[in-house]
Automatic annotation (TrEMBL):
Signal peptide: none
Organism for this UniProt entry: [Candida] anglica
Organism taxonomic ancestry: Eukaryota, Fungi, Dikarya, Ascomycota, Saccharomycotina
Domain named Helicase ATP-binding: residues: 100-265
Protein family membership: Belongs to the DEAD box helicase family. DEAH subfamily. DDX15/PRP43 sub-subfamily.
Gene3D superfamilies: 1.20.120.1080, P-loop containing nucleotide triphosphate hydrolases
Protein name: RNA helicase
DNA sequence: GAGCACTGC
């Protein structure tokens, strides 16, 4: 264990630096944007002298002190006062007046607060006491990138304001709207606010919009920022607050026309950072050794190790457990308990990470080790972590516009991520972070921030959303980070082939309908087209299943049995049809009587995915009804049942087609000419000439996954524009298509002739 | 013959 991390550095207090910079900035940019509106709402009582956007921190505090709740008129409870005491101890509280000074004098501001500052819970309340939205019938919105956060923060703030959750304070997320006409503060996902903006371009019900966790740069937050920048001009009365963790604050400021900044320090314990003296070739091995070393030599405290994916994590857990037991036997170390943590882990196993560490022995501490993906970096916080081991990698989504493929790639993390990971060690007491790379690499090789999602994604659905938001000129849309032109072109092209956009780039009726569905445009189009094939009920099921995580479970210990279980649902014409069979079975009387959980376990299916598919399906079905799209099924008795479903799929998936290579065993994707193999998980036998696929999986080999057999005649008939051979490169695919198109044309002509004859005969 | 990191509508 010679290359134990050795170099030692103190983590900088970023907050102090940012606060100084902010003060300096304020001196230079006083921002006299006049949005003050003298406005007296009530003349009956306590708000008689209150003027919108002129409250002082002192006045607000007086209102908070009670005895009556300013928003409900009710008498405050004892619990309220207990919580109030804790709140007044938060770092943000000390800067309430400073916040109000900026907030009242400017339309857009940037607020920076580290973890533990209390920004997410307190800032919206500061706004409430200054804005009094209940008097004007407006609302304050605060967005979060994740659903659980929106829910749990709303619950907390409802308690802090001494109101019932869902009344004055509520939340709005997919599948659940917990708000009422009384709601004045609404926590919501960023995606949900974006949906609202599609129907109300001015977001007119809000007097203030707070974008929280803006540094995460989710697709939805990025679009909202561009949108709010425009809305702010049309609505000078709308206040906007961009909230972020420390880094990148200047970028937000300059994007929003040099908006003023307020920074508040967080409340975390110091974390000592250690680097390795040299580059680690095998980071997995180095990580395992570091964890064991911590266990053998460091005082009490739990360990968090960041790795990239499920397989790696399970592998590391096994090795750490084995070697940890050896340490117990040979060096009298305390017991060690290792837990994996990743998104696809069943919830009850995820919960196990909160079990207490094992008791120590022989005067040596027992220890809990959690081996996790990035889920522990942002989504899940675990108290009691004192040691973090950071190899410096994570799986990140990348998009290749040339072949229109999104894939996951193990890549170095950013400085911001590294800092976030280190911070996980200092939540309850001072901690240590072991970085398995050199300090040199940290400084010179890691980028400051991860690339925002908008630069790493297929933008088909984003472009459709923007069009629906009324933004016609996408080229000049003011993105904070403009996506690559090729990515935009690909998206526009794809939407044009789907007939969601006209040749002029305008939204078509189909496009307008498609934008209403929370789906990838291609899936939305399959769904909208399905009534024409009399099978919208079937397509609803398939589309829902395609938009949730994989329903098939394949544990390493029972691969063969899992595969056999899957074959019981198999349909010889493909994986899409197999999904349909699975869902039918899941909804059967038999499964119900068996108990759905048990039934899923017995059949190696994911209960979580299937129930979530059920909610998605119900939501999609409601949207279909709302748009008068027929809900129909051919019924099992129809001899064309499966053919109709396959045709309906082909009508939307015509851009994701592969043709078998002649003589060879592989396939070639149509138009992009990529060599691919059908993923081994398919139920499809090998002899199909033409297949549609749901997904292109880019690994050591290229696979297409979730594949169904189709007839090429359907493709050329359903999407003549896409199958215009002038746009195809020469080769096997083009030749075959040419023959098919000729055949189809002759057949159509013959049919026409026959029809004409019939007509003239009958008349 | 086997790569679904993590979110969101």
């Amino acid at each position: 264990m010679s290359d134990r991390p050795s170099k030692k550095l103190k983590m900088d207090s970023e907050a102090e630096k940012v606060a100084e910079a902010a003060e300096e900035h304020l001196k230079q940019h006083p921002h006299p944007v006049p949005t003050k509106q003298p406005y007296v709402a009530h003349d009956d009582g306590e708000f008689k002298d209150w003027i919108k956007h002129q409250t002082t921190a002192e006045q607000a505090q007086k209102l908070e002190d009670g005895p009556n709740n300013a928003f409900t008129g009710n008498k405050f409870s004892q619990k309220y006062f207990d919580i109030l005491k804790v709140r007044r101890d938060l770092p943000v509280f000390a800067q309430r007046q400073q916040f109000l000074d900026i907030f009242q004098n400017t339309q857009i501001m940037v607020f920076v607060g580290e973890t533990g500052s209390g920004k997410t819970t307190q800032i919206p309340q500061f706004v409430l006491y200054d804005d009094m939205p209940h008097l004007a019938g407006t609302q304050v919105a605060c967005t979060q990138p994740r659903r659980v956060a929106a829910m749990s923060v709303a619950k907390r703030v409802a308690d802090e304001l001494d109101v019932e959750l869902g009344e004055e304070v509520g939340y709005s997320i997919r599948f659940e709207n917990k708000t009422s006409p009384k709601t004045i503060l609404k926590y919501m996902t960023d995606g949900m606010l974006l949906r609202e903006a599609m129907d109300d371009h001015n977001l007119s019900r809000y007097s203030c919009i707070i974008l929280d966790e803006a540094h995460e740069r989710t697709l939805a937050t990025d679009i909202l920022m561009g949108l709010l920048k425009q809305v702010s001009i049309r609505r000078p009365d709308l206040k906007i607050i961009i909230m972020s963790a420390t880094l990148d604050a200047e970028k937000f400021q300059s994007y929003f026309n040099d908006a003023p900044l307020l920074a508040v320090p967080g409340r975390t314990h110091p974390v000592e950072i250690y680097y390795t003296p040299e580059y680690q070739r095998d980071y997995l091995d180095a990580a395992i050794r570091t964890v064991l070393q911590i266990h053998a030599t460091e005082p009490e405290g739990d360990v968090l190790l960041f790795l990239t994916g499920e397989e790696e994590i399970e592998d590391a857990c096994r090795k750490i457990s084995l070697e940890g037991d050896e340490l117990v036997r040979e060096q009298n170390c305390g017991p060690i308990k290792v837990y994996p943590l990743y998104g696809s882990l069943p919830p009850n196993q995820q919960q196990r990470i909160f079990e207490p560490a094992p008791e120590g022995a022989n005067g040596k501490p027992g220890r809990k080790v959690i081996v996790s993906t990035n889920i522990a970096e942002t989504s899940l916080t675990i108290d009691g972590i004192v040691y973090v081991v950071d190899p410096g990698f994570s799986k990140q989504k990348v998009y290749n516009p040339r072949i229109r493929v999104e894939s996951l790639l193990v890549s170095p993390i950013s400085k911001a991520s590294a800092q976030q990971r280190a911070g996980r060690a200092g939540r309850t007491r001072p901690g240590k972070c072991f970085r398995l790379y050199t300090e040199e690499a940290f400084k010179k090789e890691l980028i400051e921030q991860s690339y925002p999602e908008i630069l790493r994604s297929n933008l088909a659905s984003t472009v459709l959303e923007l069009k629906k938001l009324g933004i016609d000129d996408l080229v000049h849309f003011d993105f904070m980070d403009p996506p690559a032109p090729e990515t935009m072109m690909r998206a526009l092209e794809e939407l044009n082939y789907l007939q969601c956009l006209s040749d002029e780039g305008d939204l078509t009726a189909l496009g307008r309908t498609a934008s209403q569905f929370p789906l990838d445009p291609m899936l939305a189009c399959v769904l909208i087209g399905s009534p024409a094939f009399q099978c919208s009920e079937e397509i609803l099921t398939i589309v829902a299943l395609l938009s949730v995580p994989n329903v098939f479970v394949r544990p390493a210990s029972a691969r063969k049995r899992a595969d056999e279980a899957k074959m019981a649902f198999a349909h010889s014409d493909g994986d899409h049809l197999t999904l349909l069979n699975v869902f039918e079975a899941f909804n059967s009387e038999e499964a119900m009587q068996h108990g759905l959980h048990q039934w899923c376990r017995d059949n190696f299916l994911s209960y979580r995915s299937l129930t979530s598919a059920r909610s998605v399906r119900a939501q999609l079905r409601r949207i279909m009804e709302k748009h008068d799209l027929d809900l129909v099924s051919p019924g099992y008795d129809d001899p064309d049942y499966w053919t109709l479903v396959r045709k309906a799929l082909a009508a939307g998936f015509f851009m994701q087609v592969a043709k078998k290579k002649s003589g060879n065993k592989g396939y070639l994707t149509v138009k992009d000419n990529q060599d691919v193999l059908i993923h081994p998980s398919t139920v499809l036998a090998a002899e199909n000439e033409w297949v549609i696929y749901n997904e292109f999986v880019l690994t050591s080999t290229n696979y297409i996954r979730t594949v169904t057999n189709v007839k090429p005649d359907w493709l050329v008939e359903l999407a003549p524009k896409y199958y215009n051979l002038d746009h195809f490169g020469d080769g096997d695919v083009k030749l075959s298509l040419k023959r098919i198109i000729e055949r189809v044309e002759t057949m159509n002509k013959q049919k026409e002739k026959k029809d004409k004859k019939k007509k003239s005969k009958s008349s």
